[in-house]
Amino acid sequence: MNPGASTNLTVVSTFFPLPQDRGDPVRVLMILRAIARSRPYTLLVVRRHDTTTALVDELRRMLPGVTVADFPATPYRLNRLGPLGRFPEASLEGMPPWVRTRYSEGLHERLARSTGAALAIGEAAGAYFRDTTLRWHWDKANVLAASTRQDVDEAPSRAHRLRAQFLARASARFEAEALRRCSTVSVTSDAESARLAEHYHRPADFTLPSCVTVPSGHTPAPRPGHLVWLSSFSYRPNLLGLRRFLDEGWPVARRSGYTLSLIGSGLTDAVRDELARHDGVEVLGFVEDLRPVLATARAAVVPLWSGAGVKLKTLTLLAHSVPVFATLVGAEGVPSNGAVRLADTPAGLAHELVSATAEDLDKMAGEALRLVRQQFSEEYFAERLIGSLGATGYLGQR
Questions:
Q1: CA distance 28 to 147
Q2: Which Gene3D superfamilies match (predicted)?
Q3: Chain-centre distance of CA 63, in angstroms?
Q4: What is the side-by-side strand order in the sheet with 42-46?
Q5: Is the model more confident about 393 or about 118?
Q6: Per-residue confidence at 7, pLDDT binned at 50, 70, 90?
Q7: Does the pLDDT at position 6 exceed 70?
Q8: How confident is residue 5, by pLDDT bands cut at 50, 70 and 90?
Q9: The pLDDT of residue 310
Q10: How does residue 1 score in pLDDT terms, banded at 50, 70 and 90?
Q11: Rounded distance between C-alpha atoms, residue 397 and residue 387, angstroms
C-alpha cells in the first residue's frame, strides 16, 4: 500500500475506553484520540457489561469526526455449564476463554464487509483478523507467550497451575495465529519487542510506549512520610507484588515513619480486610480524581515482579510529580533520569525509600514531571503513533 494513498481506516477495540478505571481503557483512549487528530475513521468497539448509552454518547463527543459503532459481547452458548462449557467452546473457536469473553460476532460480521486498513488495539482484538480482507496492524500491550508463562510460575496450587498452563497454551496458539494474519505489529517497549522476537522470531515493527496527560490544576503539597501504591487490585501480579512488599519491605518503611495509601479499582471486601490489617496502611480503593491524594504523596512504590511493557501506573505517578521506587518490571520502558530508583527485592525497595533524603525526593519529583513532558506526553505519543502508522502505510491523506 502506498503510504500517501487515501484509504479507509477501521479501528477495533475489544475494551470500551470509558470509564478510565484501569490501564487498558487509558491506552485505548490515547490511541483513539491521537488518530482522530490526524484523520477520520470508523471505530468498532465492544461494550463492557456495564457500558451505558450515556458512556457511548460521551465517547462520541470525545472523538469528533469519528464514526463510533458499539457492539455487545456475544454470550457463551454453554455459559450455564460454567468453565466446563466456556473452555471447550472458546477452544473450538480458536480463542482462549478471556478473549472469547470480549468477542462480538456482530462486530466480526461488520469487519467481513469492510475494506482498507485496520488497527486492532489490544491482545483480544486479534480474534478479528480471520475471515476479513483488511490489512491489519496489531497494537499489543504485552506478549502473551511470555506473560502467561509468568502466571504458571506464580500459580499458588496445583489446580491453579493446571488452569494457568491450559490458558498459557491457548493464549500462545491464539497469539501465533494472529501474528501470522496481521501485516504489522507494535508493542510498548524494546524489551517487549525482544520477547516477541524470542517467541515468534518476529520483532515489532515499532514500539509505542503509553503516555499520560499531565494533570491540570495539580499542585503538589507532599506530606512527609506519605507513601502511595497505585494499581488495579483485580490484576493478580499487582496484588502479589503488593503482598510481598507488605510482608518483606513495609516493616522497615513503617519503622521510619511512613504511612501507605492503596489506590485502585477492583477492590473486594476480602482483599480490603486483608490489607487493612497492616499497621499504617490505608486502603482507599478506586479514586475518581487522583489529584488530591497524589498531591500529598511524598513517594510511591511499584513492587512488581511480573508483567510486561510500560506501566501506566508508573507514568501516572510521575505525571503527578511523585518520586517512584520500583522494581525493574515496574519501571520497564522508563529511561533512567533520576525520577525512579530501582531495587530487585522488597527489602531493597524499602532501603532505597528510607535512605532517600528530603532533598533527594524533591529532585526526583522535578525529574519526574520533566520526563513525562519530554517523552510520555499525549503530544509526543500522538506524533509517534501517527508517524509510525504513516510510515507503514496505514494512514492515507484526509
A1: 20
A2: Glycogen Phosphorylase B (3.40.50.2000)
A3: 21
A4: 67-71, 42-46, 9-13, 117-121, 135-139, 184-187, 206-207
A5: 118
A6: low
A7: no
A8: very low
A9: 83
A10: very low
A11: 13
**Hey, do 9-211+378-391 and 226-375 end up sharing a CATH topology, with the first three levels equal?**
yes
Average pLDDT over residues 315-340: 93
Distance CA 117, CA 5 (A): 11
Read off φ and ψ for residue 228, nearest 5 degrees. Answer: -130, 155
Instruction: Please provide residue 184's backbone torsions phi and psi, each rounded to the nearest 5 degrees.
Output: -140, 160
- DSSP readout, 265-285? S---HHHHHHHHTSTTEEEEE
CATH architecture, domain 9-211+378-391 = 3-Layer(aba) Sandwich (3.40)
- The per-residue DSSP string of 112-161 comes to HT--SEEEEESGGGGGGSTT---EEEEE-SS-HHHHHHHHHHT-SSHHHH
Q: How far apart are CA 234 and CA 209, in angstroms?
A: 23
The band of 206, judged by pLDDT with boundaries at 50, 70 and 90, is: very high
Nearest to 59 by CA among 27, 19, 92, 91: 19
What is residue 228's three-state secondary structure?
strand
Report the alpha-carbon distance of residue 325 to residue 222 in Å, rounded. 16
- Tell me: pLDDT of 377 over 60: yes
> Would you tell me the crossing angle of helices 236-248 and 269-276 to the nearest 10 degrees?
20
pLDDT tens-digit readout, 157-192 = 888 889 889 999 999 999 999 999 999 999 988 989
Q: Where are the domains of the chain?
A: 9-211+378-391, 226-375
Place of cell 525497595: 349
Q: Could you tell me the CA-to-CA distances from 237 to 129, 148, 297, 303 in Å, in that order? A: 29, 11, 23, 9
- At 140, list the grid cell: 499489543
| Third-level CATH fold of 226-375 | Rossmann fold (3.40.50)
What residue has cell string 529532585? 363
